[in-house]
Amino acid sequence: MRIKFIENxxxxxxxxxxxxxxxxxxxxxxxxxxxxxxxxxxxxxxQTWFIGSKSIFVIVLTGLFTGxxxxxxxxxxxxxxxxxxxxxxxxxxxxxxxxGPVFTAIMVTARAGSSMAAEIGVMRISEQIDALKTMxxxxxxxxxxxxxxxxxxxxxxxxxxxxxxxxxxGFISGSIMLGxxxxxxxxxxxxxxxxxxxxxxxxxxxxxxLVTTTICCYRGYYTHLYSGFGARGVSLSTxxxxxxxxxxxxxxxxxxxxxxx
Amino acid sequence: MTIPLIQFIDVNKSFGAxxxxxxxxxxxxxxxxxxxxxxxxxxxxVLLKHIIGLVSQxxxxxxIEGESLSQLSVTDRNSxxxxxxxxxxxxxxxDFMSIYxxxxxxxxxxxxxSKHQVKAKVLERMEQLGLIGIEGKFPAQLSGxxxxxxxxARALIIDPKIVxxxxxxxxxxxxxxxxxxxxxxxxxxxxxxxxxxxxxxIPEIFNVAQxxxxxxxxxxxxxxxxxxxxxxxxxILNAFITGEDF
Lengths: 261, 246
Known about the structure:
The complex is a heterodimer.
Chain A: H1 2-34, H2 41-51, H3 56-78, H4 87-125, H5 128-134, H6 139-177, H7 182-192, H8 195-221, H9 223-226, H10 230-260
Chain B: E1 6-15, E2 18-28, E3 33-37, H1 44-52, E4 59-64, E5 67-68, H2 74-81, E6 84-87, H3 99-110, H4 115-128, H5 144-156, E7 162-166, H6 174-191, E8 194-198, H7 204-208, E9 211-216, E10 219-224, H8 226-231, H9 235-242
Parallel strand pairs in B: 3-8, 3-9, 6-7, 7-8
Antiparallel strand pairs in B: 1-2, 1-4, 4-5, 9-10
Helix pairs in contact in B: 3-4, 3-5
């Protein structure tokens, strides 16, 4: 019984190490192919459209409501200590340093990341990835590399959009609905934000782009190894891709914040 | 004596506990159509995937014109693989691409042809296979027979020297089956490629292939021409042809 437990535990550890090695190699291969000519310009534009442009509506909507909630909660917290004038600063810093990059990454993962995992997963189980190999087309270069570049372009831009819309949301609930002087709100926003804060937010969104795209593409690419074949395999891969990406976003958020503060 | 273009010598392959190929020996000759027949699940597709490099053998050798494939330099191996084309059982067409893009893909990604040259070549193949007018459609919008022809057009677009067909007529009606078979024969004569066909179409495939191999229990139980089949007293072969269990 005890030996069986140790065997299973050892096997689980070995599988974990193997998976970790495989994902690192997958990531490195994808990164390497970015720098191998010719540049896959059409595919990058196509993916940027899919990951970036098509996420704008979702980002605007979540950014607006996140900002409005922050404005509401922030106002009732600050008014207790007579500091409601600092609402603009509180909303802007929370969004730029934390919520903007994290929420953007999670929303884009839910919308585009799940789709990447499912699409590549279907390609795996229907032998389309094997077909690429038989045509001497490197599947990692063809499927993964353009998505990394597209994500690296899209995530920071979407984060910036989320931040701006969120600050406007805070303004709507704080100034328009709760009566904080609009000049005071905007003034505290402008004067409290440092370049260092903005850079920090962008570092995070850059890291989240790499992490979530790698996990989603990896999960789809190796559907047959982890989730099995068929529709069930693809659905499992997609779920795992989204869950693992979201957890990774929070873990990396903590690590990056630790080094930034 | 002619050296086979591709030769399997005592090839073994297992997936986990399941042993698929057990000491398989097979010779494929240049310019011929070789048909591999056998019950479902006996490893016929695995055999083809060994040739194209999607699967590697556990033991044994695969010789290419007398030289071991595993011992060829990376450049020589790649140049061999570049002469090959593979038509998948389920076509493996890219469903997010138009029919034109599907057929053009191997040229767009690997050749130095200009856009105009690619277009001319793709349209030529499409015309030859009766696919003109569906360039902008997607695979899901086509019938099974049409998709087969698109897969065939994609396999032939690079003018391969060796084409591997994995059950090219599965799911087709008898008329379309006959058409695909004649198409393979016609193009094989025209482009002089070597073909390996995995097929269940008995006895039609005997009129298409010059050499037939029966795979059973992980090894080749019979190898020969149509005449050899007719003259054969092999119980396994006769049972397979008549559809009896053996």
